[in-house]
Amino acid sequence: MTDTDREGLLTAIRSAIQSAPNAESAMTQAVRLLKDGVPYYTWVGVYLLDGNELVLGPYLGKPSPHTRIPLGRGICGAAASEKQTIVVDDVNADARYLACSIETRSEIVVPILDGADVLGEIDIDSDARAAFGDADRRLLEQVAALLAEGIAGPE
Ligand code: SME
Questions:
Q1: CA distance 47 to 49
Q2: What number does the ligand 1 atom closest to the CA of 45 have?
């Protein structure tokens, strides 16, 4: 996937989010465009923070057993607690990992932040080992910023 492909994908996601009627629709469309747009994104989902738990929202891929994740658990919980993107090249070597599919090899979790507040996160799994690089991180952090506007609403 080239930088031009990624720019095109980001443009499509920006336009879909900005014309979405509500936050749920914005998240659903972002998930679909990411899943369809990047061949090695095997599972794409959004979790939203509800109290001290992350609750699974729109997703595409195999059903996950982890529909509610406490902040202290999993790679998802760690990214929300640390308010930072976490990339795991080999999920089987990371003690924090909560398995969703036996085929998953690597994962990226990108917090959706409104200033210092965590609204939720984008979680993506790949069946390829070390699938996620700096270009994925940049793309997904931009998508997270767009989603933050859609979720938090206008000031
Ligand atoms: N792997 C995540 C759990 C979510 S599933 O992958 C969809 C984690 O370790 O937090």
A1: 7
A2: 7
Cβ of 98 below 6 Å from ligand 1: yes
Q: Residue 152 — pLDDT band, cuts 50, 70, 90? A: confident
For strands 68-70 and 53-60, give the pairing: antiparallel
Does residue 136's CB lie within 6 angstroms of at least one atom of ligand 1?
Answer: no
Which residue carries 């994908």 as its tokens? 9
CA separation for the pair 141, 51 (Å, rounded): 23
Cα diameter, the chain: 42
Closest C-alpha residue for ligand 1 atom 1: 98
Q: Long-range contacts for 8-14 (Cβ within 8 Å, ≥24 apart)?
A: 9/33, 9/34, 9/37, 9/38, 9/139, 10/139, 10/142, 10/143, 12/37, 13/143, 13/146, 14/146
| CB-CB neighbours of 52 under 10 Å | 11
Q: What is the pTM of this model?
A: 0.96
Distance CA 127, CA 105 (A): 5
Kindly state if the Cβ of 121 falls inside 6 Å of ligand 1. Answer: no
